[in-house]
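Priority: medium. Attachment 1 of 2:
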């Protein structure tokens, strides 16, 4: 009886599951990348051997978790063990050649594409994915979602930056607890401030003398400030740069859409938004600007009752999923109202917050953002440029 069942779980099935796992650095299936080096199945216990491109890759843990989750989805799997080795230099060279062949000679970057009268889009620099976070109106938790996603991605081993382009709202630097001033580095460019977990943050509020000074940025000034926050800052190599946009459809978000080489947009809404057309206006602006929308997050969706744990819908039934459907967007998830979010934000400790919901949203984002990056090998994966000390 037992063996009959187990016969159904074979290496091909495991291999099929592994095809869905993307290398977190390169964004291609680990099967295509020839990283799967062995599968053994013993009484429902699956051992998978994976060859990493870089020893001690900070993303190894993420890859391991992804492999485990993928294989666990198979029926009759009791346990999954992932063992890692490292590719030899020769294997790595072969892989580089293969990757370059697959993408062809590097074509001109979209950096120089002219998207509006007199506005030139800035180049992509060493940044893999530039993702803007937008909302129809203020106060829906756009900055919270931005900082949480940054924090989740950082925890998974990615290099992450946040560009706070919301010149009207309170600084995202505050919820992340960064207070130091950005300074000029040796090359003359501005060095962003780092959070305690290593997220690079650049916010106009950090450069202003008096954080309480009312700022009215208009027209060409908005344009040049945002361009400077992106271009004059030494971001270094990043996997993700998240851009916290001002709410609505005014000049400032428009400038970001026109100036930065965005790879994707995340829309944040709250249940109160729904009656009005504010969310769809913001979505339409993004669509008009040809920015691929990666999905919608509904924040403050519901409350978990502190007494009985039941879900309480404060603003009527959460409708984020329905809204996403109507707007033709993927639904990334619903985040509950959580008093500890407000507290940790006040204390500048938002990186200490974690919830499986946010982790799930970050994973969705990771998958969807990867699919949006067209020229994966234009610049080599970041980890590859860091030679492991042991091999030097
Ligand atoms: N899910 C949540 N639960 C509780 N408080 C939240 C939640 N999301 C955001 N907040 C709080 O609501 C306020 C507005 O959030 P913020 O991210 O600044 O909004 P926005 O950037 O859209 O203007 C902040 O005080 C923040 O701490
Ligand atoms: Mg904000
Ligand atoms: Zn209750």
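Attachment 2 of 2:
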């Amino acid at each position: 009886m037992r063996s009959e069942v187990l016969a159904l779980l074979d290496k091909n099935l495991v291999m099929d599951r592994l095809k869905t796992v993307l290398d977190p650095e390169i964004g291609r299936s680990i099967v295509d990348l020839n990283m799967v080096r062995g599968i053994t199945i013993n009484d429902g216990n699956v051992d998978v051997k994976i060859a990493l491109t870089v020893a001690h890759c900070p993303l190894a843990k993420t890859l391991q978790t992804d492999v485990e989750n993928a294989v666990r989805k198979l029926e009759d799997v009791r346990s999954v063990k992932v063992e890692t080795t490292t590719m030899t230099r020769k294997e790595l060279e072969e892989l580089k050649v293969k990757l370059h062949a697959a993408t062809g000679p590097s074509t001109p970057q979209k950096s120089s594409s002219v998207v509006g009268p007199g506005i030139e889009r800035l180049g992509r620099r060493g940044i893999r994915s530039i993702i803007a976070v937008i909302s129809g109106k203020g106060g829906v938790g756009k900055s919270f979602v931005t900082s949480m996603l940054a924090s989740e991605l950082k925890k998974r081993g990615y290099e992450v930056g946040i560009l706070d382009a919301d010149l009207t709202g309170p600084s995202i630097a505050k919820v992340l607890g960064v207070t130091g001033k950005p300074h000029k580095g040796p090359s003359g460019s501005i060095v962003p401030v780092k959070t305690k977990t290593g997220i690079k943050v650049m916010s106009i509020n950090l450069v202003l003398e008096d954080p309480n000074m009312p700022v009215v940025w208009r027209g060409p000034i908005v344009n040049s400030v945002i361009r400077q926050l992106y271009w004059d800052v030494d971001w270094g190599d990043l996997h993700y740069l998240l851009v916290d946009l001002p709410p609505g459809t005014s000049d400032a978000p428009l400038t970001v859409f026109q100036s930065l080489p965005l790879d994707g947009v995340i829309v944040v809404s709250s249940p109160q938004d729904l009656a009005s057309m504010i969310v769809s206006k913001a979505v339409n602006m993004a669509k008009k600007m040809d920015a691929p929308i990666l999905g919608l997050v509904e924040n403050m969706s519901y409350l978990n009752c502190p007494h009985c744990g039941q879900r309480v819908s404060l603003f009527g039934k959460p409708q984020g999923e329905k809204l996403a459907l109507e707007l033709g967007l993927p639904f990334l998830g619903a985040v509950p109202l959580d008093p500890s979010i407000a507290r940790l934000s006040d204390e500048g400790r938002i990186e200490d917050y974690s919830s499986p919901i946010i982790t799930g949203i970050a994973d969705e984002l990771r998958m969807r953002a990867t699919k949006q990056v067209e020229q994966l090998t234009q610049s080599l994966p970041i980890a590859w440029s860091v030679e492991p000390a042991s091999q030097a």
